[in-house]
Fold Major facilitator superfamily (MFS) profile domain-containing protein.
Amino acid sequence: MSISSPPTVAEEPPEKAQQVANNEPEIVVFQPDDPEDPHQWSPRKKRGTVALTCAYAFCAVFGSAVYAPGEEKIRERFGVNADVSSTGLTMYVLGFGIAPLICPLSELSGRKLPYHLSWIFLVVSSACSAFIENIAVILLFRFFAGCAAACALNTGPGVIADLYAKDLHGMGLATTMFAFCALSGPCFATLVGFFIAAHTDYALWVLRVQLFFALAMWPLLFVFPETYGPVILEQRAKRLRKGGRENAWAAHELHHRTVSQLLREHVVRPFTMIIYEPIIQGAALWVTVTYGILYFFFEVYPIVFIEQHGIPFQLCGLMFLSVSLGMVISVVTFNYLVRMSEKVRIPLIERKGERLPMEETHLKVVIIACLCLPISLFWFAWTSGPETHWIAPALAGIPFGYANTAIFFSFTSYTSRTYSLYASSAAAANTFFRSVVASIFPIVAHSVVDALGTKWGVTVFAFISVAMIPIPFIFVRFGPALRARSRHAKEAREIITRMHRQEPDDRSSLEGKIESVAVVAVDSRDDKGQRAHTV
């Protein structure tokens, strides 16, 4: 829906406009209570945008796991072994990690265009993998489909940050819903996939389900709004120039950058974040382990429940309902636990009388999840044998699902709050590390189980998760210092400040207040200093 621009200096009478020198660029900024500013959108419009973002994330990850139930028929149809058939799942997850390295370009082109382009690519790739009778081609286009689907996962946190950067509670709730959709999608995909594989003779029907789902979601993109502030300001500046105000420009339009600069800033940035940002490193490590174990379970659950407990093939997908239930519990209890975290002090971590910033206060919730993960893994591992009733390992999925979702949305919300405008770059760094490492889990699943059995095979991951428990405690204690020293976080905060207020040399002349104007003139002599004054 088109929203008219608020009154701006550029739209005032020509005699007043002439106060600005013709050779001086006029920087377009948001006004307070600006209806085009995503921060100021109505709650209804924000919720609708978040709902679309969550739906596309659900569809994107649905395509990864819906393949797993069809692996047995794919082995029979194409005469390949278990390692090759598992590669179809691996290639899709690997695509999740590779493609997001270009998704931070949404910080140049906006959020909407990457969604449109990637969804076309997803539909084409899904069609090729679902209808071409060649295992090599299927695996190749599974990778391409994963690359395309990754945009929905990577850009989503950026959209949420665009809408709720000034509302930590709203961002937390939106991130929770996004995390639930991104993580529950594979669980529901296996539920559908096992029924499809059990009642169809053709091996590729599980892939055709993903194609039909992506096609059904495509039309909704045409009502998806642009949420990225700098691009909205650029569009406003273009309207003003068409209306005769030739000197009206958005701030980032004035910075002419070469292709190498663009690549360095928007493609290399995720790598630099992984290397130099401790917040990204710790968050990516935890999310990678939980994410990888989820895909490890897509290969292990059929072994445990079908081979060791005799569950009918078509019902194996129902075993993932306990994981989904744990995810629902995580979503439902999130706000309550956040309120509790504001009242509960962690001994030896929080000093008495000290008040933590809201970012670290809300992150305390993840400590519960980090404890639940090893508990669920030990539980599943040592009840997975045929001597134990199948309900015991099935119920272990509840704390696992809770931990998986809580860890994902807590760390995603924390990094989005920390890096704000660079949330897509932070998500790309996280997604790259998570997906590349997690893509190995499905391939090694059968080898690990064959060598160690289900009990010790899963126990290995339980011990790994125990070793990582100190990470959230470190973030809670030293998070403010880490955020203050972060170059990327500081740079993002400065950009947001420039977008929403003037920066005169003599701030006292404005008495510390933000002027309600949408265009200010800057001294063109100094590109870096940008001495602004009221027009």
Notes: The beta strands are 26-28, 248-250, 519-522, 532-533. The chain has one domain: 38-228+260-490. The longest strand covers residues 519-522. The chain has 22 helices and four strands.
